[in-house]
Structure formats: C-alpha cells, structure tokens
C-alpha cells in the first residue's frame, strides 16, 4: 500500500516543479497547468472515494467476505501446478465455468457502476470540463500546459508505486 503522506509530499514536489516550469513558459502556462493539475487531483480523489464507498457497501452486504488472513496465506496451488501433469483444456473449461458468462459480467458491471458514476466523480469531471471551457473562452488556455498539468497526478502516482518501500521478507 502506498503511504499517503509520501504520496502527498511527492505530489507537492511535482506541483512545485510544474510551477517552476510554468514560470519559464509564462502566465497562461501557469494558469492552464495549475487548473488541470487540481482538476486531475480532484478526479483522482473522487474516484478513490467513490470506489472505496462501493467496496464498503459490498463488504457490509456480504458480497465481499471479510477476511483477517494475510494475502500470502490465501495463495493456493488450486490445480497442483507444481505436482502432476495437467490437461490444459480441462483446466481452461473449469476456469471458464467459474467465471460465468454474459450474465455474470452484466451483474458485475451493475455492481461497479455505482463507483464509476458516483456524484463525486461526475462533479470532478465537470470541474475539469468547465475549467477547460473557461480558459479557452478567455484566451488563457495553453494546451501543452494544460496537458502537462493533467498528466502530472497519474504520473506521480505511478512513479510513487515503483519507488514505494518494499515489505520485509519474513524468515
């Protein structure tokens, strides 16, 4: 799990770098990049809270079982991959039967739609859209600055995943 404090520090550092770059490119770049950065940050936080709320509801309803076991304790060799030989076709058929079909996929889509279309996300995308329209209408839009600010939050989140602290191995 990513440490939230480290992620926030990394985001602030990335925004400071974006501001420094913006000072070189001018005021329109600064305004465009900052409005896109905060809209992107708002979208990311809204998505997180929307999906968090959806998962909590599913845990409360019993769709997702509460487990106190660690992740490594739940790993099993279901098909005895390290032992006997396998009939690949048979294993594939068994796994497809577990997955279900169109009906199961439709049910899963319906369950996850509440997270995808939460009011938080819709408002966040509205802020992004309105900020773009406002900047464009008033002649302050610098498209490269806007795209740079928009890409910074996902980029920082991705980079912070790769540089997070690795868990210690237990002996």
Instruction: Tell me, briefly, the overall form.
Output: elongated
**What's the Cα radius of gyration?**
22 Å
- The low-confidence parts are none
Order of helices and strands: HHHHHH
Q: Please, how many helices?
A: 6
Quaternary state of the chains: single chain
How many angstroms does the end-to-end distance come to? 21 Å
Question: What fraction strand?
Answer: under 5%
Summarize the biggest pleated sheet.
none
Mean pLDDT: 77
Structural class determined from secondary elements: mainly alpha
Q: How many β-strands, per DSSP? A: 0
Assign a percent range to the helix content: over 70%
Short structural summary:
The chain is 72% helix and 0% strand.
How would you explain this protein's 3D organization?
This protein has helices at residues 4-25, 27-61, 88-99, 102-116, 119-137, 143-162. α2 (27-61) packs across α4 (102-116), α2 (27-61) packs antiparallel against α5 and α2 crosses α6. The protein has six helices and no strands. It is 72% helix and 0% strand. It has 171 residues and is an all-alpha fold. It starts with a helix and ends in a 9-residue tail after the last helix. The mean pLDDT is 77.
């Amino acid at each position: 799990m990513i440490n939230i404090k480290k992620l926030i520090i990394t985001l602030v550092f990335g925004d400071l770098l974006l501001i420094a770059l913006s000072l070189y490119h001018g005021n329109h770049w600064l305004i465009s990049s900052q409005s896109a950065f905060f809209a992107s940050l708002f979208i990311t936080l809204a998505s997180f809270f929307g999906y968090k709320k959806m998962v909590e509801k599913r845990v409360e309803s019993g769709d997702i079982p509460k487990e106190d076991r660690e992740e490594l304790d739940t790993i099993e060799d279901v098909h005895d991959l390290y032992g006997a030989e396998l009939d690949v076709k048979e294993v594939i058929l068994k796994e497809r039967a577990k997955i279900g079909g169109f009906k199961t996929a439709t049910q899963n889509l319906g369950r996850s739609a509440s997270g995808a279309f939460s009011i938080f996300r819709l408002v966040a995308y509205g802020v992004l859209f309105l900020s773009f329209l406002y900047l464009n209408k008033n002649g302050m839009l610098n498209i490269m600055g806007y795209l740079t600010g928009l890409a910074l939050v996902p980029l920082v989140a991705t980079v912070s995943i790769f540089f997070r602290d690795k868990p210690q191995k237990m002996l």
